[in-house]
Design goal:
The chain is mainly α and 436 residues long. The protein has 4 domains: 83 residues; 122 residues, Cytochrome c-like domain (Cytochrome Bc1 Complex, Chain D, domain 2); 58 residues, no CATH class; 101 residues, Cytochrome Bc1 Complex, Chain D, domain 2. 41% of the residues lie in helices and 4% in strands. A hairpin with a 7-residue loop joins strand 3 and strand 4. The longest helix has 80 residues. The radius of gyration is 46 Å and the shape is extended.
């Protein structure tokens, strides 16, 4: 038993040696495989880097070529611009680009829709005043009013003839627009609001005819078409001038400015009410100008600064004179008055069974106290006129119908007014023929 350890030790040592040699051989094979893998990876990375370098070099070469081409094109364009004339036609491409095709006649016609002042561009069609009233009421009245007077902030289309010299002129189709072509073109392409381009040529002719009638520029039997387009005299046709400042004024503006001793005498003609001082810490303050006397300062009131002269009072416009004529059922004046009354029939009624509409019925209006038709609720201004004992006479009625809002300030009647003396005479005679 004492010899057993001695016998085992050599055996164990030999086994350990064998295992160590085996482990060493195994580690050597693993390291060799690892090295092979890394060498393969290095070769792949080098190949990718070489390919990327070649691609970058090719792209740089291409970019240089494109930059050179752009510079050549810009140089050629600059040379053409320097040698070109405003009268020379544009260069022809001869179809070398190979893009697009020639527009078809119907395609050109679809875009060529503008109308010129001489009538060029107008389509076939026509429209009369009374058809225009129906189409206008259906498509336009909600914004522009039944009588083209405008609703809320929507534009007024009629009236304003005597306001162009005022501080706030009323610029309407009648008072301001110089060309009828602009009216037709705008209505046809942009109206009605929210449904632009839906009006037919006949609808457009009719609406424009009604707008002209609302401005007393045409009679009620007028028919607008290509043939009658240039027969309409626009009120402000001569109210615009050609801008000739380039020829008449620019030369004077471009002279050398005077920089010193420009006037023989310089005098202070007005004192400032407020002065602006700059404190040391920065900013600015407005301070009162303490003049030696109060008289040296301009005064201010609700009417404006004292140094602005008060506007001279405008002469009172005399009321239109109306010729009172004897009429009969077959009289031509009655027929004319009947036509004029069509402008009023949307809001007023006359004749048998006439009832109140948005305005009172007018049977027996001549000689009747203002604001006294039974069952109608009048505005405050008419109630005040009634309290004052005012009555409707031929002269009073004519003055009211000529300019309702000017005659009766505060009236809710939106009618722009009648401009022709013969229309005032006719409608007065027509209304006078209806009694209670």
């Amino acid at each position: 038993m004492s010899k057993s350890p001695n016998l085992l030790l050599p055996a164990l040592g030999g086994t350990a040696l064998v295992l160590g040699v085996a482990f060493g051989v195994m580690n050597r094979d693993y390291a060799a495989d690892k090295i092979d893998t890394l060498e393969t990876r290095v070769e792949q990375v080098n190949a990718q880097a070489s390919a990327a370098a070649d691609k970058a070099k090719a792209e740089a070469t291409r970019a240089a070529e494109l930059e050179a081409k752009v510079a050549e094109i810009q140089a050629n364009a600059q040379a053409q611009l320097l040698n070109a004339s405003a009268t020379q036609p544009a260069p022809k491409t001869d179809g070398r680009l190979g893009l697009g095709r020639a527009a078809l006649p119907e395609e050109i016609a679809a875009w060529d829709v503008d109308v010129l002042p001489d009538g060029r561009g107008l389509p076939e069609g026509s429209g009369d005043v009374w058809t225009g009233e129906e189409v206008y009421v259906e498509n336009c009245a909600s914004c522009h009013g039944d009588f083209a007077e405008g609703v809320d902030n929507w534009p007024v289309l009629a009236g304003g003839f005597d306001t162009l010299g005022d501080k706030d002129p009323v610029k309407t189709v009648g008072s301001y627009w110089p060309y009828l072509s602009t009216v037709w073109d705008y209505v046809h392409r942009s109206m009605p609001f929210g449904a632009a381009g839906t009006l037919t040529p006949d609808d457009t002719y009719a609406i424009v005819a009604y707008i002209l009638y609302s401005n007393d520029l045409v009679d009620d039997d007028f028919v607008l078409s290509r043939d009658t387009f240039l027969n309409v005299p626009m009120h402000n046709a001569d109210g615009f001038i050609v801008d000739d400042r380039a020829e008449q004024e620019y030369a004077e503006w471009r002279t050398e400015p005077c920089m010193e001793n420009c006037k023989e005498e310089v005098a202070v003609t007005m004192r400032s009410v407020f002065l602006v001082e700059t404190p040391p810490e920065g900013g600015s303050n407005s301070v009162m100008n303490h003049a030696r006397t109060v008289d040296d300062l301009p005064t201010f009131s609700a009417a404006g600064p004292s140094f602005i002269p008060e506007a001279a009072p405008q002469p009172a416009t005399p009321a239109p004179t109306v010729t009172k004529a004897a009429v009969s059922d077959g009289d031509a004046l009655l027929e004319q008055g009947k036509k004029v009354f069509r402008k009023c029939s949307a809001c007023h009624a006359v004749g048998d069974g006439a009832k109140h509409k948005s305005g009172p019925q007018l049977n027996g209006v001549m000689g009747r106290a203002m604001g006294s038709a039974n069952g109608f609720k009048y505005s405050d201004v008419f109630q005040e006129a009634n309290a004052e004992g005012r009555t409707w006479t031929a002269e009073e009625l004519a003055a009211f119908l000529a300019k309702p809002k000017a005659y009766m300030k505060g009236t809710k009647m939106a009618f722009a007014g009648l401009k022709k003396e013969e229309d005032l005479t006719a409608i007065t005679a027509y209304l006078e023929s209806f009694t209670e």
